Amino acid sequence: MKLRQLEIALQRCAGFERPRASREQYQTPATLAARLLYDAFVSGDIAEKTVMDLGCGTGILAIGAALLGAREVRGTDIDPEALRTAEKNAALLGADVTFIAADVGSTEKIDPCDTVVMNPPFGAQKQNIHADRPFIDCALAIAPVTYGIFNAGSTAFVEAYIAGRGNITGRVAGTFSLKRSFTFHTRDLQEIPVEILRIVRA
C-alpha cells in the first residue's frame, strides 16, 4: 500500500463521539497518521512486526499499522467509549486489531512488542502538564522502537528526558490540523506544527 492509499483509507476512520478536553482527545489527522506509519514501514518497523498503539483513541494508528502488514497489532486506551469507536473503525477497514482497556501508567495489561506508535497528549491543558511522560516511559519499557507525535520544538526535552534510556534516531516535521472541538477553541481550524520522533531504546 502506498502512502496516498493509506491516507485515503484512514480518512474513513470516525473520530471521538464525545471528546474530553481533559484528556486532549483530538483525532489524529489521517495525513499525519499516514506519514508516521509510512516512515515506520519504510524503516522496517511495521511489516511482520508486533505493534502497539499507546493511547490509541479511536484507533487510527493501530488500524494503519495493520493495513501496512504488521503481524499483530494491539491498541490500548483508558476510555471505553473511544475503544468502541476504534473497534468499529477497524471493522470498517477490515483491519485485524486487538483493543485493550488499560492505563499507560501501568504496564500490567500491556505486553512487550516490537514497535510502539503513539500520539500522546501534548500537555496543553493545565491539568495535563507533562502528560506525555507516562507514554514515553511505557513505550521505552515495552518496545525497542517508538514513533511518537510531539509538539514542534520538543526534541530537546525528549532527548533530555530519555537520556541513558534511549536515543532519538529520526525526526520528521509535520502539521496537526486541529478542528474546532471545544467551546474554548477560537478557530474552525488551527494548524499546529509537530514533529514525529523515532526513539530507539538504549
Automatic annotation (TrEMBL):
What Pfam families does UniProt report for this protein, alphabetically? MTS (PF05175)
Q: Which residues form the Methyltransferase small domain?
A: 33-131
InterPro entries on file = rRNA_MeTrfase/Polyamine_Synth, SAM-dependent_MTases_sf, Small_mtfrase_dom
Record-annotated membrane-spanning stretches: none
Source species, domain of life: Archaea
Recorded protein name is Methyltransferase small
Keywords annotated in UniProt: Methyltransferase, Transferase
Give the GO molecular function terms. methyltransferase activity
One Gene Ontology biological process: methylation
